[in-house]
Amino acid sequence: MQKQITSKLSRCLPGLVPAMLYLLFFITLLTVIIVSSNISYHYITFTTTTTTKTTPHSIVLPYSLHNQVTHLQTQLGILLQQLHTENQDPKGFAKFADQVLGIAVSVEKLVDNLSHFYGDPPLYGKEISNVDEDFSESSDAEVEDGLLGNRVFNSGELKNYTSPKPNRQSGKKNFLGVEAVYPSIGLACAGVASNVDRFMDHKVYRMCPDDWDVAQKLMASGCDPLPRRRCFSKSPQHYSKPLPINSSLWNTPSDTNILWTHYKCKDYSCLVSNDGKRGFFKCTDCFEISKRGWEISSNKSISAEFTIDEVLRLKPDEIRIGLDFSPTAGTFAAIMREKNVTIASATLNLGAPFSEVIALRGLLPLYISIGSRLPFFDNTLDIVHSTLFLDGWIGLELLQYILFDWDRVLRPKGILWVDRFFCSKEDMKLYLDEFTKMGYKKLLWRVVPKTDKMGDELFFSAVLEKPLRG
What we know:
By secondary structure, this protein is an alpha/beta fold. Helix content is 35%, strand content 14%. This is S-adenosyl-L-methionine-dependent methyltransferase.
């Protein structure tokens, strides 16, 4: 069919092609005007309350549609330029016909995607639970590559995933320093293109810029994984060999093995200083190399914690490998190593050299953002542990995506250990419901008052067993 159309078009292209191109350009331009006057670029936003009414003002255009419009404009510009430079031969006009048809198909796709926002039935005007909305039955219509390689995603669940996940308290920054978490799929890089260019502005086979802080900002903004670079990373000027494994776990790492350029502290003693103006401001005891933080009270009415031995006894000789997703310098992993359990510690360098210290202790640092899919295969880990991480800042939808990814990498009958999750009393039930909906067996479960503030918060800890499914 397309060949027949192309053949017919080639006979009348001298007058038809320019008209079609200008018509398509007008349609695209009109689409851009409509889009820009009604909705903002970047993403679709969904509120995270359990029952809410959405309005047209809460809809934000995804990057994929923004990119469609941009690519269409670029393609039209290229074709218009070619019309002025190419000779008027039939083969050339046949090529133009194919390209015009491709743009027409792309415009149709764009209109179809926009209809999801403004068509019937509308997304807004209905009372729905946006957190629990099921997008799994979205249309799986064929998706074609555009002339310049852009691809349009039709999956409703993917659109839901790529939307920013705002913090529970709107407008307040979390411990990552952002007001929303941007799930990683690469689309977010288009919104921070200047910083990506800055990150990739280096000379090949030369020293890389000292710009890991820029890279981490990109990761926290959802631009992850980052592009590879062909340059060499800088080494500490007075680097010394690490301590032997039998002594590195519980000794203070050498200052000389850390590049301190982008940290407030410039030596290790500063990290553990009690002087708030001088020390590490986010966590006063994160870098204390001791087991003191795991000296847990046995009083169940006041302590939200479980001991490591208590948890390991639940699965004798079954816990061998796992993940700790926490703001950590590796102490949990160090204790587990002494018990012959290998733990990868997932963290970012949030104002201090977390990754470097973990590595200098002879442990495994996993440098990964909260919005990234874990780099483990399905059903492979024995345990996933998290402490002081999934707290009351987190939106319910983001919590779902995290829990399901942890569930994916845990093996059947594996252990999910949530340690000292805290939030306001009024929000606790909402969060507990999210854990309950996973269908895990409750091995240990405890909710106690959090007494270090105004008394309006609770601690929650649980050890849960993943069920067999399918």
